[in-house]
Each structure stands twice: as structure tokens, then as C-alpha cells.
Write a structure and sequence with these properties.
It contains 6 helices and no strands. By secondary structure, the chain is mainly α. It has one domain (about 1-100). Helix 2 (about 15-40) runs antiparallel to helix 3 (about 40-55). The radius of gyration is 14 Å and the shape is globular. This is Venom protein AbVp-9.
């Protein structure tokens, strides 16, 4: 999550939309898989409804063609295990979220 936002500073501006979409779909897929395994499909569907209510349909529509497991996404996502710079990040939103999340 935060590491992917931090990684945006390493991405060419024309690739940032792809990076954001790949990040969104990666997080959605990861959480959705866990919910589906532990709680069932209804819980996964509820997560999507809640996300749409919180952040709108826009990322669901704009990012639907982005699969985080493809080379297209792997090229614009941080390598697995990459840590966020947290409070030392160049991005104010990452510093803020890092403080809020305690990471």
C-alpha cells in the first residue's frame, strides 16, 4: 500500500496512472482473496460495495483492465518486500498516512 505510493516517485509521470490502478487492483485482489477464503463470497462482495461507497466507482471502472499479476503491472509496482519510507517519504500523503497508521 504505502510502499506503492512511495514508489510513484520512481515512476515516469506517464506511467503513474498505471501504477495507481495496479496498486488499487493488487490491494483489492489481496484483501478480496483473504475475505473469500475466510468469510465467503458474500464478504468479498460486501467489501466491493463498501469501497465503492467510500471512494466511488471510478477506480473500479478506470482500473478494471489492470491485473496486478501481469508484466504490465509488475513493471510499475515496487518489488515484493519493498518498505515504505514512512515519515521520511517524499510524498506528504505517505507521511500523513504513516503517522495515522503508526507505520
Amino acid at each position: 500500500g504505502l510502499a506503492a505510493l512511495d514508489y510513484l516517485t520512481n515512476i515516469k509521470p506517464r506511467e503513474r496512472f498505471s501504477s495507481l490502478c495496479c496498486t488499487f487492483m493488487n490491494i483489492r485482489q489481496c484483501i478480496g482473496t483473504l475475505l473469500n477464503e475466510k468469510c465467503g463470497k458474500d464478504a468479498r462482495d460486501l467489501m466491493d460495495v463498501m469501497l465503492k461507497n467510500l471512494i466511488s466507482d471510478l477506480p473500479f471502472i478506470a482500473c478494471q483492465s489492470f491485473d496486478p499479476n501481469t508484466d504490465r503491472c509488475k513493471a510499475v509496482l515496487p518489488p515484493p518486500g519493498t518498505k515504505s519510507a514512512g515519515a521520511e517519504s517524499q510524498l506528504q500523503i505517505v507521511r500523513l498516512l504513516s503517522t495515522f497508521l503508526g507505520s
